[in-house]
Amino acid sequence: MLIDTHAHLNFRAYDKDRDEVVKRCQSKPMKVINVGAQLETSKKAVELANHHDNLYATVGLHPLHVFDEIFSVKDYESLINDKVVAIGETGLDYWWFKHLQEPYKIVLLHGWGGSKEERFFIWLDKELTKLGHQVIRFNQPDTDNPNQAAWLKETGKQVGYVNAKTLLVGFSLGGATILRFLETLDEDARVGGVFLLGAPADPLGYVELADFFKTDFNWGQIKSVCPNFYIYSSDNDEVVPPAHGKILSEKLNAKLKVVKGAWHFNVEELPDVLSDIKNTISQSEKELPTIEEVIKKQKALFLDHVKLAKINQLPLMLHARNGPSTSLGTGLEGKNVYLEMLEILKEEKVERAVFHCYGGDLATAKEITASGYFIGIDGPVTFTKKSEELQKIVREIPLEKILIETDCPYLAPEPHRGERNEPVYVEFVAQKIADLKGLSKEEVIERTWQNAKNLFKL
């Protein structure tokens, strides 16, 4: 039996076609374990498991979210039923700390018929760069005939990874593009602030803009990834009347600022916007936790998950990620998060656990498996570059301690690398493991199924 032991069909990446993805799993046939990362996604995982015989669930708070919600043992325990097969994903993640060291990233998006050379963009770039921030401004493709898919693709490419130190400034259609971009982000994403200048709330009667407004905005999803919105309208704007700003301010629970005489923001400077960006950054700096605070919180909640698992006689679905090699000055140099977690597991006498999406070294992998725990192998093992260490690990650790997983929608294996991942692609992981170990794919699928049955008591 084929099984994907770590998936996220409970994430919003599948909201439009989740039923079709589940049907593809059923046609194999195969089993899938959907993993919770917060309370809401844990609820969704359990709901899916309750409705589909081939789906199971885990419940837990991901270490990247330890400051995003108050962990209530009672709330998570209330979700546990016969279809919940593990607690997590939980653990320690030190990779995130590299973003605390980076400058703020402020992205400027122009509008229909515009360019990165908008006058106030040039001024804003200069002022923010002087303060030590990273400013990104770029030209959208075919600016006179804007296409939503093309603009979103370019935006994603230019913006890259988003976090609380990412701010987005959108002028006119650039503002609508930002709202559509926020709709594409998953539950793990957070943006520090969004600033919309003369942004339309509907197509304004222009056919060229209809593509951006063919569906309503998902306001709930948009607000879930950004806590701070700033809306600006010009009192004499005939292109995007102030009424649009009022609509956006109501939908986004944001204050509307009306700028006098700025006619569709055809101005040299916008002091209010600069001031609001600086204030947002200043407030963010006060709210961002220190590395020490994050580590302390992650370890405390990891222990809470361990206790929850032991009380309910369930295994742990573990997330571990070492800090970046460039973590100078953070105190994380040389730290091995896998060994730190392994020590905690031994101290707490945890019997069953899997280190999902393993990213450590061979020596640590051998120590983990020798201690009786499993290692999850994902799409990166199929990559042709930068996967040598992981492939070596797969060759040398016993198949009896390996689970196959996708971590979908992330980390799609070859030949689907770069696409949205889904559970049926776990077969490519099985094939690669078979190639590395000189076995048949069928042997790997059967052995990893038995491993999953043993760990999760399926």
UniProtKB/TrEMBL annotation:
Protein name according to UniProt: Hydrolase TatD
Native source organism of the sequence: Candidatus Komeilibacteria bacterium RIFCSPLOWO2_01_FULL_45_10
Gene Ontology molecular function: hydrolase activity, acting on ester bonds
PROSITE patterns linked to this entry: TATD_1
Keywords: Hydrolase
Database matches in InterPro entries: AB_hydrolase_fold (IPR029058), DNase_TatD-rel_CS (IPR018228), Metal_Hydrolase (IPR032466), RBBP9/YdeN (IPR010662), TatD-like (IPR001130)
PANTHER family: D-AMINOACYL-TRNA DEACYLASE
Keyword Nucleotide-binding among UniProt keywords: no
Domain of life: Bacteria
GO cellular component, one term: cytosol
